[in-house]
Amino acid sequence: MENKIENILFKERRRFPRFPFRITVFCTDSFSHKVHEAKAYDISSHGIRIVSDAYFVPGSRVELCIHMPDNGEQVRLGAEVVWSKIAEDNLFMTGISILNDTLKAADLALRSIQANL
């Protein structure tokens, strides 16, 4: 009975499939122009979830730079912060919407996984 209640109360808000994506991402804040190192935890064709020591203001623009471990390619993406919350001691989890829709999230995730095997 408890599982039925949880399923009824839970509403999936994601519109696109997520892929696990454990990789270092560099985020440049549009306000301070400071570069922050972060860890990505999942990615979709339209968004990415990161954890870092920086709080990013929802609605602000950021530039993401993903260094691909397989060939060193730097993938740069314009993005907008959707939400940010405390994850744990002095770390913040941030949901970011990718503004350019040319990203092939599955390809990036698979390349990251293969490079870490």
Q: How large, in whole angstroms, is the Cα Rg?
A: 15 Å
**Architecture in CATH?**
Beta Barrel
Count of distinct strands: 6
CATH topology: Thrombin, subunit H
Question: What's the number of structural domains?
Answer: 1
- % residues in beta strands: over 45%
Helical residues, percent: 10-25%
Structural class: alpha+beta
Tally of alpha and pi helices: 2
User: What about the largest sheet?
Assistant: 6 strands, antiparallel, barrel
Oligomeric description of these chains: single chain
The helix-strand sequence is HEEEEEEH
- Neighbour order of strands in the largest sheet: 1-2-3-6-5-4
Mean pLDDT: 78
Distance between the termini: 41 Å
Unreliable segments (pLDDT under 50, ≥5 consecutive)? 1-12
General shape: globular
What does this structure look like?
With 117 residues, the protein is α+β, with helices and mostly antiparallel strands. The chain is built from two helices and six strands, in the order αββββββα. It has one domain: Beta Barrel (Thrombin, subunit H). A six-stranded antiparallel β-barrel has the order 1-2-3-6-5-4. Strand 1 and strand 2 form a beta hairpin. The radius of gyration is 15 Å and the shape is globular. The N terminus is likely disordered.
